[in-house]
């Protein structure tokens, strides 16, 4: 039995005793390599607890309410009564839909995904049973439980997820992974773990939508590790639209070989507490990381995006552009860390964050961290927050547009403008649609001040 | 009665008086030009007419079509028929030019009790105007004024003006940043709108624009006051002799 006693200043948490009974039933238990990973993650959790208020990496996002919620592990069976995907999940043209409920793959709600040309999709459980080669090679190597508390919780209790392998030189395939959270009487947690391998020259677009059933309290804790081979392209478009009472803590860790591209776009439309860590290791020359996103928050939503782009080798590019609007009593956080190693000459790294306040209540925290050890680099970062621009508002009004409509156009334009970074047009259109729905639903209450 | 009547207008910005008693009456069917050195209040006058905030009107009035302009917000003035062609059109990322144009046209139509424009009619209307102004089709799909060249921005202003069909239009330094070809196109666009019902106020530093948009009256604004008025020949005189004579007078 694991008893969690956190160090002073760190938070004790619910992922201890009640989870201990589950350990033997978790998939992969018989494999020593899986068991070893889990044991060491549990040890880290036991020693470190969840990050407390003095944790630098979590200074703007309190884990207190997460630690205090008495979660129970979600059922491992695929029998939760969900008959259809919620209405806030967009239809993505030409995408194969794969649905999970509480992190468990649900073939009954999914399109067939066994026969996609050049792309193999297995559930984590199937891949563990088969001791899948890519899974074994990658898991635990990129999303470090020591550095990322959300990876520690996930590694200790991961129960399902995906292993996706894209073959060499495969042209774009689009998958849409839909995660639905559904609690019973008690709040549940689930910890999906996915591993993605893109072989040299392969190209895949993964859309992820994270939603929950209305009024349900759950903790969605997905961790994804991805390795992209030479010249490969991995695109991930992640929409988080969790319920007002739901927690979401994710880690995405990606390693890029030479001339590989990783394009990541996050759209966050709500959740009680959402923390997304994005880690990219540029490990081959000519690598390109495009990490962008938008958020629109209201209620008491809290959304944190924390990135770490590690330029380990010369001649790589990274760009980050995040934009968002905050209303109600919401709280947005962007922390962007860039490290350029001593030998990583000719690095080009940019970062920008712009936040727009719709009323005086919300908070935006932004922290750029640039650690540059090379001398021949181009790095630029910028951050700005403010209200709707008076000059733009006047311009629209001077054409006869009333102030509410003008503000609405400017706000929509600001957030939707961020989606221009999405290179996949059907996904961009779907995300714009999701933003418009959010604005229709929330803007009236946000603007009526 | 004049279409627009400015009477003894005093305007301060941050407690500094910029306009010190401007009076000007403009009849429908006429085009007036205001010329003057930089920093003399030309843009203040245009912003106050259009209803921009941040200007304190300490004295005087502006009456438009019999109504007190200061009772109306910027958007109401626009719907009532006032238009300002901006010296520096504002870039609005994320808002496509066409969506903006449609919203603006419908705002005016609703105010006039007319039905909203449908998609087909809108496209036809825009196309008929863009062609005359030499505006490429893809420009209206782009975000409003974003990445437009100086000339494209001014053409887009005239496009908006021709679509919104104002009663009274103020052109604030519309010639700045235009080469001679673009200047002619823009001037043709303005001239096409001139008729008995409409009036124009052309604000410019140089006479050049007035060779193409020929005014009926020319005024010199200096030191916050109109210090001289005359016909179009006054513009030529200013071009030849400069503003110094009026600055000393002010």
Characterization of this structure:
The complex is a heterodimer of chains A (449) and B (250). Chain A has 449 residues and is α/β, with parallel strands linked by helices. Chain A has a domain at 82-388. Chain A is built from nine helices and 22 strands. In chain A, the strands form two sheets. In chain A, strands 1, 4, 5, 7, 8, 10, 11, 13, 15, 17, 19 and 21 form a twelve-stranded mixed β-sheet that branches. In chain A, a hairpin with a 2-residue loop joins strand 2 (96-101) and strand 3. In chain A, helix 7 crosses helix 8 and helix 8 (403-418) packs antiparallel against helix 9. The longest helix of chain A has 23 residues, at 425-447. Chain A is globular, with a radius of gyration of 21 Å. Chain A starts with 16 loop residues before the first helix and ends with a helix. Chain B is α/β, with parallel strands linked by helices. Chain B has one domain (4-249): Rossmann fold (3-Layer(aba) Sandwich). Chain B is 36% helix and 28% strand. Chain B contains eight helices and twelve strands. In chain B, the strands form three sheets. Chain B has a six-stranded mixed β-sheet, sandwiched between helices. In chain B, helix 4 crosses helix 5. The longest helix of chain B is centred in the middle third of the chain and has 15 residues, at 97-111. The radius of gyration of chain B is 18 Å and the shape is globular. At the A-B interface, helix 7 and helix 8 of A face helix 2, strand 7 and helix 3 of B.
What's the CATH class of chain B, please? Alpha Beta
Poorly predicted ranges of chain B:
none
**What Rg of chain B is obtained from the alpha carbons, in whole angstroms?**
18 Å
Overall shape of chain B: globular
The strand order across the widest sheet of chain B is 6-9-10-3-11-12
- Greatest interface and its residue counts? A-B, 24 and 29 residues
Largest sheet of chain B: 6 strands, mixed
Number of strands of chain B: 12
Task: Calculate the mean pLDDT score of chain B and round it.
Answer: 93
The gyration radius over C-alpha positions of chain A equals 21 Å
N- to C-terminal distance of chain B: 30 Å
Largest sheet of chain A: 12 strands, mixed
Q: Kindly state the percentage of residues in helix of chain B.
A: 25-40%
Distance between the termini of chain A: 53 Å
Mean pLDDT of chain A: 92
**Low-pLDDT segments of chain A:** 1-6
In terms of structural class, how would the helical and strand content of chain A be classed? alpha/beta
What's the CATH superfamily of chain B, by name?
P-loop containing nucleotide triphosphate hydrolases
